[in-house]
Design goal:
7 strands; 7-stranded antiparallel β-sheet; Protein Transport Mog1p, Chain A
Length: 315
């Protein structure tokens, strides 16, 4: 137990060593501009201006003005930095197509309507079903021709009678009389059943013609593709306006549709009045012939798109 006299002495000693209010050192308060940017600079509005600092009363007038001016400039820099960073962050969050001047240009594809296969008759298998040994298309062939894209104008001469086209109209695509006669006889000997077609012109002048030729079985189509209608890599018969056919080496191989034969030809340079692209497809009992031409040059992308979509419809 501590003696009361000792406690009184210690208290006196502590009181004598504590500084009084009159002897405490004077402090000069100075407010500094601080920035605390959140990760990603997500704030979208500028930070408020910092309060104007207190300046000691005894400071010279010139120094006071210099200090205030410096702090105001610092605050302005902070505000503009915050606004700039927020704007930059906002731009990085936009999609590329939302930024003016950076919109991704179209690659040239046409705007086709939604494409669906026509219904099969009740109990009928598809052309590639295991039970369909003949590879027959039981759906109405006239409904299997690719529809025209948006903005296209129909070529009325390909409508035919009740949707069935005369063989001579199809043969008119070919240049020489000898080729027309030879191909016509080949089609007859191969048991051609009927032809349906559709054609259109788009505003840039590109003309598209699609012909579907149906035979009795898929075996006949295989024989036609084995050196009769095509020579494995190139079409055998010359189209109107085409002096020489070359392989279309730029057609993407990855676009091949399973089960559908494809032989693609491009007109060799120099072109005539038009560039003509062509494709032969074999799907089950049906051969598709696609011709696309345009004065000057015919764009590759819409041709590729048309060929692939027609292949998928026949699949």
């Amino acid at each position: 137990m501590t003696d009361r006299s000792e406690q009184s002495g210690r208290a006196a000693t502590t009181a004598s060593t504590a500084p009084t209010a009159s002897t405490a050192p004077a402090e000069t308060p100075v407010a500094l501009a601080e920035t605390s940017a959140a990760p990603g600079v997500q704030q979208m509005s500028p930070s408020p201006l910092p309060e104007e600092p207190c300046v000691p009363e005894g400071a010279p007038g010139k120094d006071r003005h210099v200090l205030r001016a410096a702090l105001r400039w610092t605050a302005a820099v902070v505000v503009f930095a915050a606004v700039g960073a927020a704007a930059a962050y906002g731009v990085t969050r936009w999609e590329r197509t939302d930024v003016p001047g950076l919109a991704t240009a179209s690659d040239g594809r046409w705007d086709y309507p939604e494409i669906t296969r026509p219904p099969l008759p009740a109990g009928s298998p598809g052309p590639f079903a295991e039970s369909n040994k003949a590879g027959a298309h039981h759906a109405d062939l006239r409904e299997l021709v690719l529809p025209a894209p948006k903005g296209a104008k129909a070529l009325m001469g390909l409508r035919g009678e009740d949707g069935w086209l005369a063989t001579k109209t199809f043969l008119a695509e070919y240049a020489s009389k000898d080729d027309r006669e030879d191909l016509g006889q080949l089609l007859t000997d191969s048991g051609l059943r009927h032809i349906t077609a559709r054609g259109w012109t788009v505003p840039d002048g590109t003309r598209t013609r699609i012909y579907l030729l149906q035979f009795s079985t898929a075996v006949v189509v295989d024989e036609l593709f084995a050196g009769k209608i095509t020579s494995f890599e190139h079409p055998r018969y010359g189209l109107r306006g085409v002096a020489k056919v070359a392989d279309d080496a730029h057609f993407p191989a990855a676009s091949q549709v399973d089960g559908v034969r494809r032989v693609v030809g491009d007109e060799a340079k120099p072109y005539g009045a038009e560039q003509v692209r062509q494709a032969y497809l074999g799907a089950g009992d049906t051969v598709a012939v696609i011709v696309q031409s345009r004065e000057g040059t015919a764009e590759a992308v819409p041709f590729q798109q048309t060929v692939v979509l027609q292949s998928q419809l026949l699949r």
